[in-house]
Amino acid sequence: MSATGEQAQTGVLEVDGLCTDYGPVRAVADVTLSVEPGRVTAVLGANGAGKTTLLRTISCLVPAREGRVRLGERELLGSAVEDVVRRGVAHVPEGRGVIGELTTEENLRLGGLWRGAPAEDLDEVYELLPALRERRRQPASSLSGGERQMLSIGRALVARPSVLLLDEPSLGLAPLISARIMELVRRLANERQLAVLLVEQNARSALAIADRGVVLNLGRVVADADASELADDEDMRQAYLGF
Ligand SMILES: Nc1ncnc2c1ncn2[C@@H]1O[C@H](COP(=O)(O)OP(=O)(O)OP(=O)(O)O)[C@@H](O)[C@H]1O
Ligand SMILES: [Mg+2]
């Protein structure tokens, strides 16, 4: 248990009727979805569709206007950001957010600061991501784009989450590296029973490893289907998925 008494939770992540406004603009409009432990749901849609806002609302970085977000039995909305992390939700933001002046290992330790980051935790992350161990004394600014992305995922894992929110983890990466990141996401769901919400522009590669796909348009859910069904849907592909 942490200092504030907040305990990590497991269970299904349930988003119900979620709405988020920026002033007069409704960025997330009545979104309902759920992700079970061990499952990956890809969140797809054009620029400005509301994907990032959805993740930021779930992790309480922006306030919801309406709706509920539950993890297991408990409501997440209205929690302080650090309590969301303590409750088991890890958010890897768009643009990665690693600190270039710090080494790989220092960045990883930051991810576990609130729970004291026992050494075993870093070993676990290094086992999953061996490239990080080799680079552990290097400043993060000297890492390649793919390594930096792995570091930001690794940093989220140090907090031992049960839910992982990933915002465009393959952005700007070469196809081969992007495929490795997707494989890693799949493995994390399988081996650690994480519930993963994966926001991606690259719909094809996200659907290849996801269980479900949710398509957003102007903040609304326009499709919520099995990933393979969605990938085979010509109309959806033409209208929203771009492949
Ligand atoms: N801080 C903000 N203030 C005002 N409006 C915002 C803010 N952030 C996002 N928006 C607006 O909300 C809508 C959804 O943006 P969001 O960033 O969630 O989309 P996205 O699907 O993540 O897009 P992208 O694929 O470009 O990352 C857009 O119309 C955007 O302009
Ligand atoms: Mg975004």
Task: Write up this protein.
The protein is an alpha/beta fold. It has a domain at 13-95 and 161-237: 3-Layer(aba) Sandwich (Rossmann fold), CATH 3.40.50.300. Helix content is 37%, strand content 25%. The strands form two sheets. The chain has a six-stranded mixed β-sheet, with helices on both faces. A hairpin with a 2-residue loop joins β9 (212-217) and β10 (220-226). The longest helix has 18 residues, at 175-192. It is globular, with a radius of gyration of 17 Å. The protein starts with 12 loop residues before the first strand and ends with a helix. Residues 51-52, 94 line the site of magnesium ion. The site of adenosine-5'-triphosphate has 11 residues, from β2 and α1.
Please give the order of strands in the largest beta sheet: 6-7-8-3-9-10
CATH class of the domain at 13-95 and 161-237: Alpha Beta
The hetero compounds bound to this protein are: adenosine-5'-triphosphate, magnesium ion
Bin the strand percentage: 25-35%
Shape: globular
Mean pLDDT across every amino acid position? 92
Using the 3D structure, state the CATH architecture of the domain at 13-95 and 161-237.
3-Layer(aba) Sandwich
Give the H and E element order.
Answer: EEEHEEHEHHHHEHEHEEHH
Q: What is the CATH homology-level superfamily of the domain at 13-95 and 161-237?
A: P-loop containing nucleotide triphosphate hydrolases
Alpha carbon gap, first and last residue: 46 Å
